[in-house]
Structures are given as C-alpha cells and as structure tokens.
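Sequence in, structure out.
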Amino acid sequence: MLARLQQATTLALLAVASLWAWWFAQQGRPLLAAVGAAGVVFSYAAVLALEMTLMARVNRNDAAPRATLPQIVRGWWSEVTTAPRVFCWRQPFRSKLVGDQLSGTTRGVVLVHGFVCNRGLWNPWLTRLREFGTPVVAVNLEPVFGSIDAYPATIEAAVGQIERATRQAPVIVAHSMGGLAVRAWLDRYEALGRVHRVITIGTPHHGTWLACLSQTPNGCQMRLGSAWLASLAARESDALRRCFTCFYGHCDNIVFPASSATLAGADNRHLEAIAHVAMTYHPDVFRELMRWLDGTDAPVPARTHDSPEG
C-alpha cells in the first residue's frame, strides 16, 4: 500500500513540475519555467528547513548537546540529499529489489522500519548483509497508519524465521517508530530471551513534539507523554532496557526533543549533525550491528548526554 501511495505522490510531483516547465516555456519565459519546476521538485527542502527550525527551538531546553547553526545546516543537507532516494525511489519503486536471506549459520538480523516507510528503507543494509552471508529479514509494518499494537505479530513472524534458520537469537535494528514496535513485541510475547540485541535509530521512546500534529492512531501513540507510551514503559524491566543501544541526535528533525530517543539504562549513542532518515545510514550504526554479530559485544558504558559520541 505505502509503495503505491509514494509512487503516485512521486509521479504527481514530477508531472506538476513538467507541466509548469512546459507551460511557461511555451510562453517564452524559460527562466520562470526552470525556476518554477525546480521549486516544485525541491519544495520538500523548505519543509525540512521548517522542521529543523522547530527542532532547534524545542531542543533549547533539552539535556542533549546543543546543535550549532553549522551542525543544523549539515543535518538539513543530510536529509535533503537522503529523503528523495528513500521516499521517491527505494520505497516506492525498489522495495522488493533486495530479498530476505535465510541461508547461513551466523547470527541473523531483523530490520524494522518506521512511520511512513517500508522495507525499501533498508536496501543498502540488505545488500551489505547479503554480501556478508548474514541471514536477514526486513519487515513491512501494516496498516501504515494503524496502531503500533498491530505490528508485533509481523515482528514475531520475522524473528521466528531467523530463529528457525540460525538457531540463534537475532539482533534487531529498528528505525524511528519501528523501535516502539519492537518494544511492543518484546512486551506482548515476553521475548527478552529471544533477542541478542536491539539497536534503535531515532526512535521516539518518550514521544516526539512533532506527533502533536498527527491524527493517525500510531501518530497519536507517539505524542510526548502519551498514555500508550507510559503504559508500555511501566511494564518494562531494567534488564530489557540494558538490551538496547539507542542512537539519537540533536539534528533529528522528526524526533525531538533529542533526548526522547534515549532510554534509561540503555547504551545511548549521540550522532552529531545528521537528520532523522539519514541517521539510518550513519556508519556508526552499521558498525554497532557488526560488533554484536561478530561476537565482540563486550559491555560498553552507556553514553550520557554529557559524554556524546559523534
């Protein structure tokens, strides 16, 4: 469903830009044709700038390291260059390009995307893990705009596939809302003993300010201080949270305040000057996965807001 929706959105955007360019070119106004078409195509950059402005304002009172203006600009640019590849290419047109892999005897990986995403988000990860011969399954969480409580069954099926293929507990990597879906899975299936590590990337563990603008069931669940988040947290143990590595950033344009992407007792890792979707492809995140797959997962002291890792 999401792939078709994003296909339609991408093609409609290109059609509007092309129509604008053709119309004004026919009127003998080539400069307006070019500038207007570019404005249509790159209008998302202005939306990202607005998100960054809101993020900087909300983060002023947060415990996470304060982002400087150059860092915010770098974060904005990271998303400007990443978002079209994800939302206009990988997810709408290439989500089935790289399949799951269940062969191999090494520990496996389950990849869980976030809000308004699908498994196409993970194409670069899937390609690399297949090259390494790592068993890996990437899920599609549906319904796209449904409750997060609808997603644990999908994660359970994926974990079961990896368990049967490898006879080992997998590492789960989750982006954004996907991390909440994983926590809901751990809660519903009492599955702490069935996961080797959970790595979250920009997950709104305590909600996000931006969710106040959402009216979808999963969006409402991600509001700051939501009853759903409080109920989930109340049922979790300290042992569960010690199983998490949480990547968060002061230039995350979707999940802010920044510290809402951390968990008490987890290994919280700060990423500088990089935005929400682009965080997925930060080399530190993939290195963390490989550390747990390679058996070099010696205990690492949890990062605090006062000792960020860049």
